[in-house]
Amino acid sequence: MQKEKVQNIDSNTACINASEQTHPGWYNLKYSLIGIVFGIVFVKAEIISWFRIQEMFRLQSFHMFGVIGTAVVVGAISVFLIKKLKIKTIHGEEIKIADKEFNKGQIYGGLLFGFGWALTGACPGPLFAHIGSGFFAILVVILSAIAGTWTYGYFKEKLPH
Amino acid sequence: MIEQIQAPWPWYIAGAIIGLIVPALLILGNKTFGISSNLRHICAACFPGDIKFFKYDWKKEIWNFFFVGGIVLGAFLANHYLMSGEAIKVNATLQKELSNYGITNFQYMLPSELFSFKALLTVRGFIIMVIGGFLVGFGTRYAGGCTSGHSIMGLSNLQWPSLVATICFMAGGFLMANIILPWILSL
Questions:
Q1: pLDDT at site B85
Q2: Which of chain B's residues have a Cβ under 8 Å away from the Cβ of A133?
Q3: Does residue B58 fall inside a structural domain?
Q4: CA-CA distance, A69 to A62, in Å (whole number)?
């Protein structure tokens, strides 16, 4: 077993699991169901298309702006209602959403990710959808992305934040 | 109905479904929407080294792997059962520009001239796949999230740092696509 002290994941740099509850492993399959829906939408709305992303960044199509904009509006209304009506999880837990704290990483890292997004035509989600679509060469892109994340972790303390 | 499902889905349908993932994850188990954290969890699970950033209980975040596993499966199902097999409709100006760089195959989601194991051996293919991938992994973690974590989840929760991040994602993308990428494609 792991002897080192395990620290809690910092809320600002991860999509955190705010739940205090523990459940059997198969409970996680509900997240797979949501993932399946997401994967289908990625493909069917051509969000994973390199061409759609190029069109977005060249202002040649409204499609991607429409997708992201609608998602934000629907997401924001949902979060507002959850807070307003104090909606609980299906397990009766209070819903908590951690605030994002500002640091300069959002600027520097944001620009660097923007470069990568325009090059690969994919953010992390679509990369995984490419694998499901049979573009196995994208495994190379994913491995590079993992290497990039690891490199960030290695140099984190030396980088301006 | 079947024809509508097989045709590309409009932005408002796709956007609405993606937006609903935000409350779905919250209500199903207090999970905040995000994908790029998976890359960090993979590092933490496989090669944490002696790096503080990767020393946490990644097993607590295992739901995120199940989520991404679903994305892979969903993409597979969509490709096998929900497609009409027609080529992607690409903006005429973009088609013309890309054909100048020898990119003429618009049959698939990705241009085969840039994304294949063979393309990896070309200068531009290497830059786009390997350096591009590295920037996605490095940049998202440095920024603390990607399009889903910041642009959708963060903005939905009215977080101004997420707005800063989103503006920078877009600025970086515009700069790369319009100024730097044409040069890379000409290599």
A1: 79
A2: 75-76, 78-79, 109
A3: yes
A4: 10
- Residue B92 counted as domain residue: no
Closest Cα in chain A, distance from residue B100 (Å) = 15
Return the half-sphere exposure (C-beta side, CA atoms, 13 A cut-off) of residue B150.
34
- Would residue B171 count as lying in a domain? yes
In this complex, which of A36, A78, A109 lies closest to B73 when CB atoms are compared? A36
The residue range of the domain holding B160 is 114-187
| Residues B1 and B79 placed together within one structural domain of the fold | yes
**Both B74 and B16 in a single domain?**
yes
What pLDDT was estimated at residue A9? 54
The reported pLDDT for the residue numbered A11 is 47
- How many domains is chain B built from? 2
Tell whether B168 is covered by a domain. Answer: yes
Sequential DSSP letters for B75-112? HHHHHHHS---PPP---HHHHHHHHHTT----SSSS-T
Rounded to the nearest angstrom, the gap between the alpha carbon of residue A50 and the centroid of all alpha carbons in its chain is 18
pLDDT in tens, B90-147: 999 999 999 999 999 999 999 999 999 999 999 999 999 999 999 999 999 999 999 9
pLDDT at A16 over 70: no
Cα A45 to Cα A53: distance, rounded to the nearest angstrom: 12
Say yes or no: B80 contacts chain A, CB-CB below 8 A. no
